[in-house]
Amino acid sequence: MRLENKVALITGGTSGIGEAVAEMFAREGAKVAITGRNESRGHAVTARILEAGGQAVFLRTDVRKAAECQRAVDETLRSFTRLDILFNNAGVFFPQTALECSEEEWDLQIDINLKGTFLMSKYALRPMITQGSGVIINNSSGWGLVGGDKAVAYCASKGGVVLLTKAMAIDHGRQGIRVNCICPGDVDTPMLPEDARLRGLDWKTYLSGCENRPLGRIGTVDEIAKAVLFMASDDSSFMTGTALVVDGGGIAD
Amino acid sequence: MPLAEKTKGQLSGKIAVITGAASGIGRATAMLFAREEASVVLADTKADAVKHVADEITQAGGRALFEAIDVTSAAECRQLVEHAIREFGRIDILFNNAGIIRRATVLDLSEEDWDRVMEVNVKSIYLLSRQVIPHMQKAGSGTIINTASGWGLAGGAKAAVYCASKGAVVLLTKAMAIDHGPQNIRVNCICPGDTNTGMLREEAKQLGEDSNRFLAESAKRPLGRVGTPEEIAQAALYLASDASSFVTGTALVVDGGGLAGSI
């Protein structure tokens, strides 16, 4: 097991990539705390982990709120006594041009995707610095590196996540803390059919567009989880400040 | 670690070809891949040293063979691939890792040195990949990992041809990923920062600098140290294994944060 005796805090752990990471980390021996806003989905994930013999807690958290982020870190420490890995994964996406995106929708995407990463890191860094070690992995996107259509706030937030990652890597490397991000391409999460619906495209047409990349398919949440596991484990001990692209070659061109 | 300690290696049953396998990152990767139960085919110009690595692996219970070849020769690349196919029947993983460095500005760099660095660092990837890819196509899958460098993404002083060659490796990687993704062949590169290998000390020598001072300077990065060959090998393992099954056309930076402040 690659994360034995580690404690991981995973935001947006109730579905999609966060859920897959929580389950994979637990299988690799980590104790996991997951956050989310949907209580019943959160408890369903922790129940599955507990049933399989792992340790998990659900912490209802809105990552836009500093006090709730602080509480999520405190509760994790109270449950599991330490914090080794933070996976900032909570994110939302609305397909909109600058003309279509309302100020409220802009704020929502920036606050969850980017400010939430800042707030969670701010509170998680303190125990990590005390321990003298820690790993932060942020979920960015291929669209944090290149632009995309109808995605102004999402691109801005994810581009922000890439550079926040690098800035934190520079600040905290000497304290033994590694900070990296992953940049997934299109993956089989609930976000994908939701995007198709909001764009008014039928699923088949939308999916064939997503599959148009060198590997000819979309990714699975497990494939992204394996990248996060690599970043979280000691196998990546010389990696910090990087953006790991996991996208079937989507942005190779 | 003895091979028996693990239940099933991450590369169990795979065949891996590794160039520049006699020392540094190539050697560490050969040892790690073998520990993860791959059969390894090692290439290097340094006959004694590459034989020694193969012997070490064999003595630990692994499967290894070697060819003392120059990867800038198309004929010798063919010889290597034929040997691998004859022995193991297929090739799942190609690690194009052979590389050299010349620390000089364009003014101080001879044409011969320009050609040699470009041949070893870039052309060899083209020559060997075109021998290996048809076998991967036949098998329906494969993964190619190229050793680029942080200096394939950002410039460095007195390293003109090295930067040019490694920049070429990064984009050759992406171009090959686009061409061969539909055949289920993944192509990625690693961009190591300064790593504790013979090449690092060779750089100090070429620059006429004191080796210890040069190494201390190399450690100036967020993690405050240079990397180990084993840490780069772990990145190669990630890209070689099924753990990276949705990763292609990427440049994986493994540099202790050295480039976090660069474009």
Can you walk through the features of this model?
The complex is a heterodimer of chains A (253) and B (263). Chain A has 253 residues and is of the alpha/beta class. Chain A has two domains: 7-184 and 220-244, Rossmann fold; 188-218, no CATH class. Helix content of chain A is 47%, strand content 15%. Chain A has eight helices and seven strands, in the order E-H-E-H-E-H-E-H-E-H-E-H-H-H-E. Chain A has helices spanning 16-27, 39-51, 66-80, 103-131, 152-172, 191-199, 203-210, 221-232; strands at residues 7-10, 31-36, 56-60, 85-88, 134-139, 177-184, 243-246. In chain A, helix 1 links the parallel strand 1 (7-10) and strand 2 (31-36). In chain A, helix 1 (16-27) packs across helix 8 (221-232), helix 3 packs parallel to helix 4 and helix 4 runs parallel beside helix 5 (152-172). The termini of chain A are far apart. Chain B is of the alpha/beta class. Chain B has one domain (12-194, 228-254): NAD(P)-binding Rossmann-like Domain (Rossmann fold). Helix content of chain B is 46%, strand content 14%. Chain B has eight helices and seven strands, in the order E-H-E-H-E-H-E-H-E-H-E-H-H-H-E. Chain B has a seven-stranded parallel β-sheet, sandwiched between helices. The longest helix of chain B has 29 residues, at 111-139. In chain B, 54% of the residues are buried. Classes of the chains: A alpha/beta (253), B alpha/beta (263). The interface between A and B is large, with 38 and 40 residues.
